[in-house]
Amino acid sequence: MNDFDFLTGTWNVANRWRTDFLDETSEWEEFPAVSRASRHFEGGANFDEIEFPTKGFTGLTLRLYDTEREQWSLYWSSNRTGKLFPPVIGRFVDGRGEFYGDDTHAGKEVRVRFIWSGTTEDSARWEQAFSTDEGETWTTNWIMDLTRN
Hints:
ten-stranded antiparallel barrel, mainly beta
């Protein structure tokens, strides 16, 4: 239930995302961010707000732990849309978190995967990938490398 405790505090975030989230051959664009996360419900909830100063937007993630199913639901929103995206759901196993959900991007149905890895007190990695073939193949389209501020 305390899987996201490592995230509490302030982080510098080095971002890389593809210029086209569905095209694995598209170029990578790099940009900075700062994330501030807090722990709630004795570790059963986590909230962070992330600022992308060169992109001109902010986002937030709410993470909630379902004690019956022993899994997390992660919800994303940004000030660009003001909408709460459908959650990705999953868990950590041996220090690696995998979370899956369904959404749309650019008018296409996509399967979404988030992976948290390399989590320590001072660093972590988050990756997002989309699949347009129900998870047969994945295009990693956004990577965040976090370092403690």
